[in-house]
Amino acid sequence: MQESSRMKNQSNAETQRTQRNAKNKIVSAPLRVLCASALLLTTLNSAPAAEKLNVLLIISDDLRDTVGCYGNAQVKTPNLNRLAERGVRFDHAYVQYPVCNPSRTSFLTGLRCEQTRVVLNTMPFRSQLPDVVTLPQMLRQSGWHAASFGKVFHVGEVMGEIRDGWLDLGKSWDAAQMFQATAAGNVIEGRNLTGGKLPWCRWGATAGTDDDQPDGQTAAHGIATIEKLTKEGKPWMVAAGFHRPHDPFISPKKYFDLYPPGSLKLYHDPTNITPLKPLSISGGAFAEAFNAFTDVERMEFLRAYYAGVSFTDAQVGRLMDTLDRLKLWDKTVVIFLGDHGYHHNERNWWSKATLFERVCRVPFIVVAPSGKRGETCRSLIEAVDIYPTIADYCGVKAPQKLAGVSLRPLLENPAAKGRDAAFTLAMRGRNYGQSVRTERWRYTQWTDGNAELYDELNDVEETHDVSGDPQNAALIQELKAKLKKVGPFEPGEDTQRKSKKQSKRAEAGAEASDREVAVAKSSSTLPK
C-alpha cells in the first residue's frame, strides 16, 4: 500500500516536470528568436561603416605625352610606366584650357572655362567664383583631410611664389605649402637659350639631392602627410603638384645625364605644311625668339624638358613606393595628369597656349580599387571628369552641377564607349578660339572668322588644315553644332579689362615675374 502510494507520487512529479519543461520550451522559443534578433542588430550596429577611400592627385606642370607608356621610346619614365600597369591609361584625355591657371581652375571646380570665366594666369579663381565648392573642399566638408603640396592651384608667376589667397587655404585645404630650392641645390651648369630675351627660357643642372629642389620637397611632404594621416586612421586627399617639366628647366644633374647631348631626336615640320591662321599661335616676342633658334638651342631645350620629365617621374615613384609600403592601393584612388601639353618644334613653337593636339591632349592615368589593371582606354575624356569621378568613388554628392562625367564605367570597362567630343578654349586678347575634338577630327573656330580642321586619323601632327575643302562643309556644320552645345565664351568686365592689357607674352602662357627676371639677370651661371 505504501509502495503503491510512493509510486503514484513519483508519477505525479514526473508529469508535473514534463508539463513544466514543455511550458518552458514554448516560452523559450520566442525568447531565443528575440535574443538572436537583438544580437544581430547589435552586431550590425557595431559593424564599421564602409571605409572612405583616400585620394592621391598628382599633377605635372606642362607635361605633354612625353612618357614611355604613351609610346615615347626616348624618355625614361619607369615609374609612370609602372603606374599605368597598375591602372588604366587614357589615350585621349583633353584639358579645357591650354594654360596653367585656367586649366587647374577648371578641373578642380568641375566646370568648363566658359563657366568659370577664368582664362588668365593673373586671375585668382575666387575673383570669379567666390562661392564655388572645389574638389578638395567637397571632401573636406565630408570628413576628409585635404592637403596640397607644390603647385596644385596656380598660385604665382614663379615657382614658390604665393600670392595672397591663391592657395585657398582654409576653404579648399586643411594644409597647403609650396617650396623653394635650398642653397645646396644650386645651378652648376646651364644658360638662357634666348640670350636673355625670354627670362624664363633657360635650363640649369643642379647640385644636391632631389630634396634640395622644390619638387623633391613636395614628394617628401606628401609622403609624410600620407604616413601621418594613415596612422591616425583619417581619410585623406593629398595633392602633389610637381613643377617640372615647366620652365625654368632646372633639375638635378643626374636627370640631365640620362640624356647625353645628341641622344634625342628632334621633330621638324614638313616643307608643305599649311600656313597658320592669324590667331593659331600668339606670336610676339616668343615667336621672334623661337625663330632665332638653331638646332643647338632646340636640342638643349628638348634635353632640359626630358630631364624635368624624368625628375618628376622619380617623385611619382616615391609616392608609389609609399602606397606599396603602407598597403594602401586598395584604399586609394590615384589620378595622374598633366595640366596641359606643350610644343616641341611643331609649328616652330616651344611653348603652350595653342589649340593644337600637342597642347590640348595630356597624359592621364587612373588607378582605382574597382578599375582594371594595365589596360588602355581610347575613348575621349576631359579633365573636368576628375571631379565627378572622385565624388563617385568617395560616395559624396557633388555640391553643384558639374560639366564632366564619372570615369568609373570606363575604369571598370576600358573598352566601353565614352563621350563623343572634348572641348578646349583659348584666348587671344579680346578674341578667342574654341576647339572640339572628336574621334577623328579637330575643328577650331576663331572669333575673327577663321577656322581650322585637322584629320587626326591621317594627319597626327596636324600639318594640313582641310577646313577649306568643299567636301568637308557638311562635317564642319556638324562640328559647329557640337560647339554650340558648350556655348560661347562671355567674359566678365574683369576679363575684358585684363585681356585688353594682356601682352603677347602673357597670352602665350608665360609666368615669369619681375622677381624671376631679376634672378636671371643676376645669375652668373645662367648668362644672358
List its salient traits:
eight-stranded mixed beta sheet; alpha/beta; four-stranded antiparallel beta sheet; 528 residues; 17% strand
Which ranges are low-confidence, i.e. pLDDT below 50, for 5 or more consecutive residues?
Answer: 1-11, 20-48, 512-528
Tell me the total number of β-strands.
15
Q: What is the molecular shape?
A: globular
**How many angstroms separate the termini?**
133 Å
**Which percent bin holds the helix content?**
25-40%
Structural class: alpha/beta
Individual helix count: 17
Mean pLDDT: 88
The largest sheet is: 8 strands, mixed
Calculate Rg over CA atoms.
30 Å
Please state how the strands of the largest beta sheet are arranged side by side: 4-3-7-1-9-10-2-11
Quick gist of this model?
The chain has about 525 residues and is an alpha/beta fold. About 35% of the residues lie in helices and about 15% in strands.
Structural overview:
37% of the residues lie in helices and 17% in strands. The chain contains 17 helices and 15 strands. The strands form 3 sheets. An 8-stranded mixed sheet has the order 4-3-7-1-9-10-2-11, with helices on both faces. A hairpin with a 2-residue loop joins strand 12 and strand 13 (431-437). The radius of gyration is 30 Å and the shape is globular.
